[in-house]
# Entry
Amino acid sequence: MQAFQRVLEVGELADPGKTLVEVDGEMLALFHVGGTYYALDDVCTHDGGPLADGELADHTIACPRHGAKFDIRTGGALTMPAVRATRAHRVKVEDGGVWVALGEPPASAAIGGGPALSSSALPIASATPAATAQPAPTPVAGNGAATEAALAQGPLSEDRVREMLKEVKDPELFVNIVDLGLIYGVSFSEAEEAGKQCVSVDMTMTSPACPAGPQLIADTKRVVSTHPDVAAVEVRIVMDPPWTPERMTDDARDQLGIF
Ligand code: FES
# Structure
């Protein structure tokens, strides 16, 4: 177990207030709310945003990058696009000082998946792993080629492409990219081959460094290419306007348990 280190003098940090402290070479976000101190890793589990720079409201800190919220008391992720808790640390007040001891990494606070989640969005309501855990979602693989083939029937149109793209699911969230709001547009141009179209899909990511990006692009190309009238598929990544959780459909919210 890590030893406590004195990081501040009592009275140094306003209430409510937040600051950055260093313990054993690690940067932590220290909070003072309602007369109690709390410490979390200064790292948003979505994409590494600095939590100490975020907006503090009651016992919630909002990541300054994409707005994921965390409970400062537990580190639990409360809103998308974070999917797992950030580490919380032990804090005590003693001898006129504020002391922090590094905590253990969260055992499993991921929602909808394993501990490796890191990029996209989602639910989360409570801080404890037991409260946040949900039944493991069914991976996409089960739908298979038969579904894709069925979706590829009928005239080529934006609606048809969007339906087909519902077969492409975020590997971390298990929600399709259409309902996640990642598809900004679909356009067509005549291909050289008679009767065929080139399809261009404007897609965004939940964050610029989304690790699922290459897979989502490849799956999008593969799925749209199954339509017999498609000669080529181009995927353009669009980061402006940035993705926000408001872009999700009600279906996606239902799947993610967000209300
Ligand atoms: S880095 Fe924190 S919400 Fe994206």
Q: What stands out?
A: The two ends are 38 Å apart (CA to CA). Residues 5-132 form a domain with the Rieske Iron-sulfur Protein fold (CATH 2.102.10.10). DSSP finds five helices and twelve strands in the chain.
